[in-house]
Amino acid sequence: MTELFAHWLHITQDLNSALIRKDRFDTLLTTIREVLCCDASALLLYENQTFIPLAINGLSHDVLGRRFALAQHPRLEAIARAGDIVRFPANSDLPDPYDGLIPNRDSKLQVHSCIGLPLLVDDQLIGAITIDAFDENQFDGLLNHDLRLISALAAGGLQTALLLEQLETQANVTHEALTERRTFSDKIISRSAAMQTLQQQIDAVANTELSVLITGETGVGKELVANALHQRSARASKPLVYLNCAALPESVAESELFGHIKGAFTGAISDRKGKFEQADNGTLFLDEVGELSLELQAKLLRALQFGDIQRVGDDRHIQVNTRIIAATNRVLYEEVTAGRFRADLYHRLSVFPLHVPPLRERDDDVVLLAGFFAEQMKAKFHLSSIRLSASLLQKLTQYAWPGNVRELEHAIKRASVLAKSRTQSRDLELTLQDFDLFTSDEKAVSATHKQQKKESIEVPTLGLRAETENLQKRMISDALSQNHGNWAATARQLDIDGGNLHRLAKRLSLK
After folding, report:
1. From CA 115, how far away is CA 147, in angstroms rounded?
2. pTM listed for this prediction
3. Which of 41, 460, 462, 463 lies most in the core, judged by the most C-beta atoms within 10 Å?
4. Looking at 62-110, which runs of residues are DSSP E strands?
5. How many Å apart are CA 458 and CA 221, to the nearest integer?
6. Is the dihedral of CA 178, 182, 183, 184 positive or negative?
7. pLDDT at 154
8. Cβ proximity of 244 and 386 under 8 Å
């Protein structure tokens, strides 16, 4: 055991140094793997009847994005309930949560050793470590006494790492703060630098009363950011009320926002609270706020300025304490310049702007998200396992994802349905043939290449970036001319989001 204590002395020093969060968890797991000589291992956080991977070793990278609900994983449930070391026999009939998720191995882990170490602090489960070996006798020499010591040391290490995580985001941390592990609860699946910066900005503004304007392309997850802002604020115990402004018919928009009294208009058979009142002392999330009419913008501005509203048909003023979080995929300052959005409302909403980066700028987050959505489909179809082929994972990271996270989610769901239709097996593998979007993307790239090759006779070679920008300029200019300067019609013709077209045009100096 001397070697064991030497390992943990080293890890204790590392955990109290300036390591970033990811390094703390990886260091914990690396030490476990070195001490126990296992082929695959995972450090899991326990939260809301779910195990969340914090670090993995020897497992497919998409495991980091998966969420293992106890109700769907009996082995993990056994670890959570036992309160002590759990050894699973090689012939256990309980399905292994990592079946098919070990690279370069067969889809099923036929014979192997598996041990679960629950991590307890003051008799409360905060996490677990799972260790697997391909040799069924690999762990025979490990004594339960030693494993309990390792579990206790790992629990202390995990608690230290989580406390350091809290100290980085808030000034005063108590023991109870461990129940508020925000990074994992908010369901923002990410480890990229761009999203970590966004997480820090969310932490900075969440517990203030400032209005927040969330911007970003369609499908990036603006609603998740709004939810994170609410959950990390002092208003978390109060309602978060959602309103999609783009789906509001003009005739009922004012009533939806501010409510109405009985008889205010045909069909108003009783008094009704609007979204502002429903969100009193809580948060109102106005999605696609750029779609509101100018008349309604003026009324919204008054509510923000004075904190009072009037129901439709009522002369009385009602005081509300509602925090506003707004979101849009439009470039609002350009809408202000064009006269379609009030400048005073824009400045009132964007006290603290947050920009959600597109998926193509989030490093390998696409792999984590693919794992997350795949695990959801595994539960939906009651499968034993669902995995992503190595060639597919590579392609996922290369694709541009113009529809962002929403497109990825729909692609995984569609591919799962197609893959399931080809087999009766409860072990599913998603491959390239299940995804038609790559074929379409490659056709578009091929067409662009042919066009560039055709024009290279007349245009000197400027490099790929410059040539691509020249082509984009010509395509946008031609489409804009055909649509008589109408940018919305141009966006539809080019099959591109309007906000993205405005940003691209500005970058290409076309605006």
Report:
1. 10
2. 0.78
3. 41
4. 68-69, 86-88
5. 43
6. positive
7. 84
8. no
The predicted structure's pLDDT at residue 125: 95
Whole-number Å distance between alpha carbons of 495 and 136: 55
Q: How far is CA 209 from CA 204, 282, 304, 319, 347, in A?
A: 11, 11, 12, 16, 15
Q: Beta strand pairing status for 113-121 and 86-88?
A: antiparallel
Query: Which residue ranges form the domains of the chain, and what is each CATH number?
Result: 2-167 (3.30.450.40), 193-356 (3.40.50.300), 360-435 (1.10.8.60), 451-507 (no CATH)
State the 10-residue block means of pLDDT for the chain, 511 residues long: 57 54 74 83 93 92 94 94 92 86 61 87 93 87 88 84 66 39 61 92 94 95 95 94 88 87 81 91 95 91 89 88 95 92 94 95 94 94 90 93 95 94 88 79 47 44 66 82 77 78 80 75
If you search the block for the tokens 């927040």, which residue do you land on? 212
Contact 44, 36 (CB under 8 A): no
Contact 366, 403 (CB under 8 A): no
Q: Output the pLDDT for position 8.
A: 58
Tokens of 289: 């706020």
> In this predicted structure, what is the pLDDT of residue 504?
82
**Which pLDDT score is estimated for 186?**
53
Q: What is the dihedral of CA 469, 473, 476, 477, to 10 degrees?
A: 180
Note every long-range contact of 461-469, with CB atoms under 8 Å and residues 24 or more positions apart, other chains counting.
Answer: 469/508
With tokens 């517990």, the residue in question is 207
User: What is the rounded distance in angstroms from the CA atom of residue 427 to the CA atom of residue 101?
Assistant: 11
Q: Tokens 């069924």 map to which residue?
A: 136
The pLDDT of residue 359: 96
DSSP string for 325-381: EEEESS-HHHHHHTTSS-HHHHHHHTTEEEEPPPGGGSTTHHHHHHHHHHHHHHHHT
Q: What is the DSSP letter of 312?
A: B
Spatial distance between the Cα atoms of 315 and 261, rounded to a whole number of angstroms: 10
Task: Give the pLDDT confidence score for residue 480 in this predicted structure.
Answer: 81
